[in-house]
Each structure stands twice: as C-alpha cells, then as structure tokens.
C-alpha cells in the first residue's frame, strides 16, 4: 500500500489563539450554523407573515436545546457509567463530547416548548426549522473533519484520507466519514429549501420534517457501517449506538410522511401578533 496515493489530512483544529483565547474551526463552524441559519429562518418567517422577533425567540430555544440535548445525549448514550459517577464532567462541554441524536431530542423538546408558549402549530415550526438544522448539521460535520474526529474505517478507495493527527504508528487510509455526512446533509438542506421555495405557505404539513428525519437518519444508519465505533462497548453490538438510535427516528419520519400522503394539507403558523409588530 502506497500512502502517497491517498489524501493527507493534517489540518490544525485551532485557527489562532490570543493568550488564553483559542479559536477553533469546530467552534467557528458551530456558531456559523446558528448565524447563517437565523438569517435564512428570518427570510422564511417574514415571507410567511411572521416577524423577526419570532426568529430571535426560537433561536434562543434552539441554542439551549441543541447544546443541552447534544451534551446529555453523549453522556447518557455513550458513557453513562463514567458521567453519572462524575456528574461535574457533564458540564465540561469544551472538552468535547456532543451527540447528534441527543441534539435531535433536545431540539424537538425545545421547539415543543416554544410552540406551546407562542401558540404556534408544532409541525409548521418543525417543517421550517429542519431547513436550517440541515445546514447547521453540514457545518458541524465539517468541524468534525477539521478536528480529525469521528473517523471512518480503513479503506483503499482512492479518496481515502490519511489522518496524520491520529498519530498512528502505521498511517492508515480511512473513509472520510465526516465529509460523507457533511455533503449528504448539505444536499438535504438544498432539497428542503428548494421545496419550501416552491410551495412556501402551501407546503404540506409535516412534509419537510418527515423528509428530513427519514433521509437524514437512514443515511446515518448506513454511513455507520464505514465509521469507527466511538466507544469500545459498541464493538460487541450487531448495530452500533448511532444505528440503534437512528432506527426510531426513521420510523417516526416514515409515519409523518404517511400522514402527509393521507392528508396533504398546508399548515398555518398560528401564534398571535401584537398590534406593534403585526
């Protein structure tokens, strides 16, 4: 095997530092997901008669739901014994350890609370938010690539990456699984935004959310076959934790799509506008 035939990946995860301040690619891309997503969501909400204030509120719910859900998901799904024995470690988000399935649960709960408080139609909210969640997910997986983490299994495909920063005794070409996921989720963003652009307020209730959940987690189930397991206990499982957590979400997405097929009606956002911002 000639490692010169593959792509050498040796990107520094840190962009620059100023004293104790360290700016990393992952953090920048994570933040960009929210910044760009807020602008896109504002365009969507205003086009359908809502206000920028609604977007400001939902963005706050999204940030809290994403961070708490992703962190608790990692601690409870992948290393519960360690974190339950050392609960203070759960707070150390800067040391890494976020799970996309946990983020999904956190976002769903946060948006349910948002919908209850603001009296919005829950599925209408989900249909619009998944557009920007897809974009954010693509950027986060790109951040994982910059960190040389969530790596793929060894392979001899011509586009394999040699992850230099793994410091392996013998360099091994691997699937760039992070890049696979990033490209797929970006494609999902293009699909969802394209459908919304075509139908706008006439978008069938639940269509975008159902497509997002079904396609995203179906791909996630499949891509896990070319990814290294994150924890040792997964080596003893027929399907790893990422796949087991994906299956219920695929089923949920299919149920939503079946409902859309049976009753393809558009949803209205609901909520109440005050006289000052109506």
Automatic annotation (TrEMBL):
The protein's name? Phosphatidylglycerol--prolipoprotein diacylglyceryl transferase
Q: Which family does it belong to?
A: Belongs to the Lgt family.
Annotated PANTHER family:
PHOSPHATIDYLGLYCEROL--PROLIPOPROTEIN DIACYLGLYCERYL TRANSFERASE, PROLIPOPROTEIN DIACYLGLYCERYL TRANSFERASE
- What organism is the protein native to? Pontibacter ummariensis
What's its EC?
2.5.1.145
Supply the InterPro entries for this chain. Lgt
Q: What does this protein do?
A: Catalyzes the transfer of the diacylglyceryl group from phosphatidylglycerol to the sulfhydryl group of the N-terminal cysteine of a prolipoprotein, the first step in the formation of mature lipoproteins.
Q: Note the topology in the membrane.
A: Multi-pass membrane protein
GO (cellular component) term, any one: plasma membrane
Query: Which biological process annotations from GO are given for this protein?
Result: lipoprotein biosynthetic process
Q: Name one Pfam family in it.
A: LGT
Q: Where are the transmembrane segments?
A: 25-46, 58-78, 98-115, 122-140, 177-195, 207-223, 243-261
Q: What's the chief localization of this chain?
A: membrane
Q: Which amino acids does the record list as binding a 1,2-diacyl-sn-glycero-3-phospho-(1'-sn-glycerol)? A: 141
What is the uppermost EC class here?
Answer: transferase
Q: In which pathway does it act?
A: Protein modification; lipoprotein biosynthesis (diacylglyceryl transfer)
Q: Does the UniProt entry include the keyword Glycoprotein?
A: no
Query: Does the UniProt entry include the keyword Heme?
Result: no
Q: Which UniProt keywords apply?
A: Cell membrane, Lipoprotein, Membrane, Transferase, Transmembrane, Transmembrane helix
Q: What is the lineage of its organism?
A: Bacteria, Pseudomonadati, Bacteroidota, Cytophagia, Cytophagales
Q: Which GO terms describe its molecular function?
A: phosphatidylglycerol-prolipoprotein diacylglyceryl transferase activity
Localization annotation: Cell membrane
